[in-house]
């Protein structure tokens, strides 16, 4: 269950993600949260003169980023649907203003006009 994965700062998700061999879909928000946490918690430099790089911080950032690079390099166990990829590519390449999107949404789901209630 997804709610179980979010308990304890996503520790269950991290454990399952680490234990899962092969192709997997990462929850990018969790990994980005980890990057931000390391960046905020640890200083870049170990001295005021900025001559000693915080190697521990760099190693932790590398570990998180390398995990995502490895996942991205893994081939999925199925073939991509070329028609679906084309459709998504074309639809993502089209830019629409907020007004255009709103008008399209009205075409799909017209607003229901409320009828005034008669007072009795």
- Please indicate the percent range of residues in DSSP E strands (runs of 2 or more): under 5%
Annotation, overall tally of beta strands: 0
Topology order in helix (H) and strand (E) letters:
HHHHH
Shape: extended
Query: Which radius of gyration do the C-alpha atoms yield?
Result: 24 Å
How would you describe this protein?
The mean pLDDT is 87. The protein is an all-alpha fold and 120 residues long. It contains five helices and no strands. The chain is 62% helix and 0% strand.
Highlighted features:
mainly alpha, 120 residues
In terms of topology, how is this protein built?
Elements: H1 2-19, H2 28-41, H3 55-73, H4 82-93, H5 98-108
Helix pairs in contact: 2-3
Summarize the structure.
The chain is mostly helical and 120 residues long. It has five helices and no strands.
């Amino acid at each position: 269950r997804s709610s179980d994965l979010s308990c304890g700062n996503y520790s269950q998700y991290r454990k399952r993600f680490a234990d899962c061999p092969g192709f997997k879909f990462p929850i990018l928000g969790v990994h980005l949260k980890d990057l931000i946490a390391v960046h905020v918690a640890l200083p870049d430099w170990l001295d005021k003169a900025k001559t000693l790089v915080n190697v521990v911080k760099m190693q932790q950032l590398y570990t998180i980023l390398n995990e995502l690079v490895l996942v991205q390099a893994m081939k999925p166990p199925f073939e991509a649907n070329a028609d679906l990829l084309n459709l998504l590519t074309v639809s993502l390449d089209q830019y629409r203003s907020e007004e255009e999107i709103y008008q399209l949404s009205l075409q799909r789901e017209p607003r229901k006009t409320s009828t005034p209630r008669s007072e009795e």
